[in-house]
Amino acid sequence: MTRPLTLNARAAVAGRIVLAMGGGYAVAALATAFLSLTLPMPRAEAVTAATLLSFPIMVAIVVVVFAARSLGRAAAIVGAIGLGLGLALRLVTGSFPFGFGS
Amino acid sequence: MKQGFRQSMAWLHTWSGLVVGWVLFAVFVTGTATYYRADISRWMQPELRREATVTPETLAASADLAVAHLQAQAGAARTWFIGLPTPEKPLVELFWRTKPGAAPGHVLLDPRTGAPAAMRATRGGDFFYRFHFELNLPPLWGRWIVGLCAMVMLVALVSGIVTHRRIFSDFFTLRRDKAAQRGWLDAHNVSGVLALPFHLMITYTGVVTLALMYMPWGVTAAYKGDQFAFFAETGQITRNRPAAGQPGTLAPVGPMVRQALATIPEPLERLTIANPRDANSTVVAVFEEPHGLSHEHPQVAFAGTSGDVVEVLSGGLQPAAKTFTTLVGLHEAHFAGAALRVLFFLCGLMGCAMVASGLVLWSVARLPKSGAVPGFGWRLVHALNLGTIAGLPGAVAAYFLANRLLPLDLAGRAEWEVRVFFGTWILVAGLGAWPAPRRAWRLSLAAVAALFAAVVVADAATARGLWDDPAWFLGFDAALLALAAGFALISHKIARYAGPRRARRAVPEPAPRMEAA
């Protein structure tokens, strides 16, 4: 990039990278766990299908994070999806995912 | 980043591609070589004599002989792996694992004598296979790094597709006569778009091969993390039989081999023996994949102490499991015959070209104005580009060369071949620090061409007397010569190429900023 980046712009880019990797993986992981328990098929099939879907889900989240108008907006979108999945998983399992809050 | 969707994706494509490009190039090159893993191994052990057929009696006798060797040498091991002889490789290959973290034991036996096979020690094509997803690092580190890079590549592919306004006409666009940057952009587009279905398939299926390691949370949620139970329930492996904790005696495996051969009509590939000295020992006969895309090995499991069949796995997977094994099968391409394999190989080369041209495009698009001193960032990218794009092929050639030139009785010979591989890589990459970038490219690529040519000379000079099938070895050497000619041609083109300067003088304005750069 030829135009110089301000410190703010650099921080925003770094923030998006962290959000894309961490948030993308977290949403994909939550979605995999949730779908594994809820897809209407035998258990082994549900886990396989959910695991296969997890990678396109993560790619989609990364694209959303980098396409969003601002870092804050991206964080809000990813946070909302993650929260929704976390609560849904809480309803299905009766406890918070991965031992959080238990 | 206050800009449109397409611009943000162009930015994402440029930078995500650059950051992982060097690792991806290495993964693509070694993965492409892995399509010919068995051939590379055969070329690297010219002492090997192939056989027309392997009879069931040979298989049963080989299994007994293998177990006798393992009882004596690896009694404490938790699991034994016995690779049985095939016509292409009529040897017994033994692996054993004693405890997690410790390096597995390994030996190749001659089934006729039971003694270690008299052949030069080498890792052969297996080195490229493992490097492809472990980068010669500790497995866990290597697999996570490669997986991360593969995910970034998926992102780069998706954002690259979005970036293209005219993806169809890019099929037919290669403007070599325009500015250098245009030419590189078109080369990147052609190699990327032409083989795009392959690139998408190979990247996604590559992640899928290690899906349970990268994304174990479905198994965590539904199986409390028990991956054995999950795989057994999908029908991909036989059910786990935990050790009883009491000593037991393994029954003769020869009869089990005969019974397995009578059960499944595919060639028998290997035996796995778990807890061999336990009362609950298990012998699993694993067969080759039946004809088809799917990666599913028929299996017959025996109770080790009695020799009774406890489970037979043969097809019948559910839809999602079948999808999973088909994706893995697509990645490994074991189903591909000679012609299709060539096509996969060429697509792999297109992948190498796509990554390499993308990396070069980054540095050409940011070429310092004539007279200006390049910044640190540009020099770093240039050095890494050259170190990877020329260094890795040079290392591959040197690995082959070492196989022919190192003394046959050298202690740790297989490890020395790998040392030569990395030593050469570092040497060629050192040329990237040369102050004149174009000369550095020319010299390093000429060196790679010379190395490949030297391999052919060394093969003819030292191993000709060992060739069991001269036409086959000449074919392999011809492929190496073709690689040498390709690198020599590129080096020559770089020396003669004067396009960018003229083009820049003719067009006073810099070329319009393009989508993908």
Automatic annotation (TrEMBL), chain A:
The keyword Transmembrane applies. The chain crosses the membrane at residues 12-35, 47-67, 74-92. The lineage of its organism: Bacteria, Pseudomonadati, Pseudomonadota, Alphaproteobacteria, Hyphomicrobiales. This is Iron transporter. It comes from the Bacteria. Keywords: Membrane, Transmembrane, Transmembrane helix. It comes from Methylobacterium terricola.
TrEMBL record, chain B:
Keywords: Membrane, Transmembrane, Transmembrane helix. It comes from the Bacteria. InterPro entries: PepSY-ass_TM (IPR005625). Pfam families: PepSY_TM. The chain crosses the membrane at residues 12-36, 144-168, 189-215, 342-364, 376-400, 420-436, 443-467, 473-495. This is PepSY domain-containing protein. It comes from Methylobacterium terricola. The lineage of its organism: Bacteria, Pseudomonadati, Pseudomonadota, Alphaproteobacteria, Hyphomicrobiales.
